[in-house]
Amino acid sequence: MSETLPLCDARTDLKPIETLFLHQLPEPSHELVESSRCELQRKHAGVHISLAQASGPDSWWLVWAPGNAQLTARGQNMDRRLHKMDDCPATQDGDPDGGDECLLPARHAGAHSFEMESSGPRVPSAAARKKMLHALRESLDEDERTELEEMESLLASEGDPLPLITQSEALVVTTLLGQVAHDDWLMEDLVLRIVERMDTRLQSLAH
């Protein structure tokens, strides 16, 4: 396995006007990252870039100049800008139907993203998570869907709480449930509902 190439170390924080613009974009794919790291190969030529937000089919990149250099856009000089760019068409094995896709914009400097270390995962937005959860539900077979619906039905009913565990044990259970379900979004949704119900009871006991 070939060694991955290092990323650029340049970082920048979003400015309030940039955050405001990005929050107004429709169909955001992820939560905003306030401190952005350049996603190009270390020692690349030209400007730094970082994906600010994907909005539907559009990718908006934060572009900023290194040092005291300036960008020129529409005849104006500036040190940074938000710019909509097309996606890089490259794939790891050259086959558009297989292999990892390059996650950088078209005509980017340096290596492709699949040749470099990861810049880290982004937290999906609420809208994106809803779509992903819907797709996961659609992928379940009949037995799996029936089991999930039965669990949801049980959580929808109230009933009388049974004094089976202590308050300290309940705190441990809620913590462990959240950790166990971290990588399974369908189960995570059920776990979060259980945790919320237990937490409500714990708070009422504390008062």
Provide a descriptive summary of the structure in words.
A hairpin with a 2-residue loop joins strand 5 and strand 6. The longest helix has 22 residues. The protein starts with 10 loop residues before the first strand and ends with a helix. The protein is built from five helices and seven strands.
Strand content: 15-25%
Shape verdict: elongated
Q: Give the mean pLDDT.
A: 82
The biggest beta sheet reads: 3 strands, antiparallel
**Number of DSSP strand runs:** 7
What is the helix/strand order? EHEEEEEEHHHH
**Poorly predicted parts:** none
Domains, number = 2
Condensed summary:
The protein has 207 residues and is of the alpha+beta class. The protein has helices spanning 16-23, 126-139, 142-156, 167-180, 185-206; strands spanning 11-13, 35-37, 48-55, 58-64, 71-73, 76-78, 80-85.
